[in-house]
Design brief:
The chain is of the alpha/beta class and 168 residues long. Helix content is 50%, strand content 15%. It binds ligand C2R. Keywords: Isomerase, Purine biosynthesis. It catalyses: 5-carboxyamino-1-(5-phospho-D-ribosyl)imidazole + H(+) = 5-amino-1-(5-phospho-D-ribosyl)imidazole-4-carboxylate.
């Protein structure tokens, strides 16, 4: 297991299905991570300990996911100099708009890079891009990933064209 350089935190273990794709994206790029349940509301001291010690423990990026009154990403960002990526979770009520607004509307001076509602995978990929700024081999891997993505779109377009042609 590689040393963790990305910290994945979530307000509850019930957030894991949304956060696991972030972990899988990091796995795809061979980036080490750790994952913990830390809540600004339920475990405020533990949350502060985590955020304040993160940089000193070698983490470089934090991904924080939460639902509802999702204060966790912003509170973590307030207590660490590391970049924080927020992931809003859609709960049964309000479809995640509550989580999104709680995370994205930060006061000036305390940025949280917010991905879309339920955007765990993009959070992982954004963490990889942030790390790739100072890591040439990781940047090469991102470029290969983008080329693969483009190739998949080309294949899908071809499939659509064939379907349209056979419908004529
Ligand atoms: N938004 C927060 C925070 C926080 O922001 O500190 N702590 C827990 N939660 C959220 O409460 C939701 C329900 O949690 P439970 O499933 O444990 O009841 C989760 O989406 C969690 O992220």
């Amino acid at each position: 297991m590689r040393d963790p350089i990305v910290g994945i935190v979530m307000g509850s273990d019930s957030d894991w299905p949304m956060m696991e794709p972030a972990a899988l994206a990091l796995d795809e790029f061979g980036v080490g991570y750790e994952a913990h349940v830390v809540s600004a509301h339920r475990t405020p001291r533990r949350m502060l300990d985590y955020a304040e010690s993160a940089a000193g423990r070698g983490l470089r990026v934090i991904i924080a996911g939460a639902g509802g009154a999702a204060h966790l990403p912003g509170m973590v960002a307030a207590a660490t100099p590391l970049p924080v990526i927020g992931v809003p979770r859609p709960l049964d009520r309000l479809d995640g708009l509550d989580s999104l607004l709680s995370i994205v509307q930060m006061p000036a001076g305390v940025p949280v890079a917010t991905v879309g509602i339920g955007g765990g995978r993009n959070a992982g990929l954004l963490a990889v891009r942030i790390l790739a700024v100072c890591d040439d081999s990781l940047r090469d891997a991102v470029v290969r990933f983008q080329a693969d993505l483009a190739e998949q779109v080309a294949v899908r377009d071809l499939t659509l064209q064939e379907r349209l042609a056979s419908a004529d």
